[in-house]
Design goal:
Layout (H helix, E strand, L loop, with lengths): L4 E2 L10 E2 L2 E6 L9 E7 L2 E7 L12 H4 L1 H5 L9 E3 L8 E3 L2 H19 L4 E5 L6 H14 L3 E3 L5 H11 L7 H7 L2 E5 L3 H4 L4 H9 L3 E5 L12 E3 L6 H14 L5 H7 L3 H8 L4 H8 L3 H12 L3 E5 L9 H14 L10 E2 L11 H13 L5 H4 L13 E3 L3 H7 L7 E5 L3 H4 L3 H9 L3 E5 L5
Parallel strand pairs: 8-16, 9-15, 10-11, 10-13, 11-12, 13-14, 16-17
Antiparallel strand pairs: 1-2, 3-4, 4-5, 6-7
Length: about 450
């Protein structure tokens, strides 16, 4: 490798620093994108991160989190060793212990809780701070063997995912490197690409240079909204009314794709009746979007080879799943599903098919049942016990479960990849629940 030096502006210190190697890797953070990284390393220590220009998708583009990865890794306040609480929980007093002492303590407590209360008294609190698959899979397998309770649900995306899945089917969608080449119209919904998918912007700009028409739907004037050919700004939480009016306009003007509807959908007659009351004027009163803009968006989207890229903003309201269902139905009646450059993306889960015990069991069922995921189908009576789910707890109601769960009560929590207190509603009651635990382990980079 040729000599590579970092300047003082790259690394805290003085003088040029010769690095030992530059490693190619990817970002494991929680936006799923796994952007390509170049890691500059000296004496086994990460000194600097840059985007990898050779990565075929991200092409060297990084967000602020990725760019500052090395500073976070080497920050003076990083927790580097196990810390054991001394005194009462919540007082913030800790002492340093060895790794062996930490592991022995955790194992002894887990054994105690399982023996006295049962495996379901143990819960792993996990979210998406780090999406690294190997660590997650190993942890899942460990807790599966213990028979621990499992948190399910999401603060972020499952309303929309349920709407998309039960309308369009399995969410195996197209990457931007595919759809951006063929889309004549790009509709971005509730998705601030400028901040949350920085690497997507070059693909979008290239598509627009080629002549693609950009529609952005968002209550906020985001940076990408300022670049749109058509920007619709509905009041927060009112997207559904606007989309119902768009579908009525499409039906009234014969812009729907009848061939696609006939071959690939059912229930469209009922849908047409359901949207019949949603005139452009009625939707405008609800959303604040001018009637002619709703009509223009509907016509442009319906009459061109159009791609819809949905974020998560529009589904973070009461009945958010119905909002995504409306967008999914809009794509379906126009025939913009499953075509190269003309489909509806909500959440592409194709990357999550990692080998696991559950995968092996589910595969045959899911192939035969399509997108339906029903417990008595996936886990029929008589299934081997190692495949069966243990107690499931809605992550949004975890605080309630901490205080009220019975048979068994929750006695041990291992928290990592998420902010147990910063993410959960009703923090005061969460703290009350944590104080009752026999074991609370937190894996954190900093003292939160």
């Amino acid at each position: 490798m040729k000599n590579i030096y970092l300047s003082p502006s790259d690394v805290i210190g003085s003088g040029l620093i010769k690095v030992d190697e530059v490693r190619k890797t990817v970002c494991p953070r929680n936006c799923f994108d796994t952007c390509g990284l170049l890691a500059y390393v000296k004496d086994g220590k990460l000194l600097k991160i840059e985007g990898d220009p050779d990565h075929p998708i991200t092409k060297g583009h990084l967000c602020a989190k990725g760019t500052l990865y090395a500073r976070r890794t080497n920050h003076k306040d990083r927790i580097k060793y196990p810390l054991m609480r001394v005194g009462k929980r919540g007082e913030g007093d800790f002492k340093r212990i060895t790794w062996d002492e930490a592991f022995d303590y955790i194992v002894d407590k887990l054994k105690f809780c399982k023996k006295k209360y049962g495996g379901e008294s143990i819960v792993e609190y996990i979210y998406s701070g780090n999406r690294e698959f190997l660590a997650k899979t190993v942890a899942d397998r460990c807790l599966n063997l213990i028979g621990a309770s499992k948190l399910v649900g999401s603060f972020c995306l499952l309303s929309g995912l349920s709407g998309a899945t039960y309308t369009n089917g399995s969410q195996y969608t197209q990457g931007i490197e595919i759809w951006s080449k063929k889309a004549e119209v790009i509709m971005i919904v509730g998705h601030n690409s400028s901040f949350t998918n920085v690497h997507s912007l070059p693909f979008i700009w290239e598509a627009m240079d080629r002549g693609a028409f950009l529609i952005v739907i968002d209550p906020y004037v985001t940076p990408i909204a300022t670049k749109a050919d058509l920007f619709l700004q509905p009041r927060p939480g009112t997207d559904t009314a606007m989309v119902l009016a768009m579908m009525k306009y499409i039906f009234d003007n014969g812009l729907e794709d009848r061939e696609f509807i006939s071959e690939h959908t059912y229930g469209v007659d009922e849908l047409e009746k359901a949207v019949s009351e949603w005139t452009l004027e009625k939707a405008s009163e609800v959303t604040g979007v001018e009637p002619h803009l709703i009509a223009k968006a509907a016509e442009i989207y319906a009459t061109n080879h159009s791609h819809m890229e949905c974020g998560w903003g529009h589904q973070r309201y009461t009945n958010g799943h119905q909002t995504q269902r409306a967008y999914s139905c809009l794509a379906a009646i126009c025939g913009h599903i499953g075509k190269e450059g003309a489909t509806c993306n909500y959440l592409d889960i194709s990357a999550y098919k990692t080998p696991s015990v559950r995968d092996k069991w589910d595969r045959g069922v899911r192939e035969s049942m399509g997108f339906l995921e029903i417990d008595n189908v996936n886990y029929p009576k008589g299934s081997p016990s190692k495949y069966l789910r243990r107690r499931l707890i809605n992550i949004s109601a975890f605080g309630k479960a901490l205080r009220e769960a019975k048979e068994p009560p929750i006695k041990a929590v291992i928290s990592w990849r998420g902010g147990l207190l910063s993410q959960q509603p009703d923090v005061k009651k969460m703290i009350e629940g944590i104080k009752k635990l026999d074991l609370f382990v937190s894996l954190e980079l900093f003292m939160t």
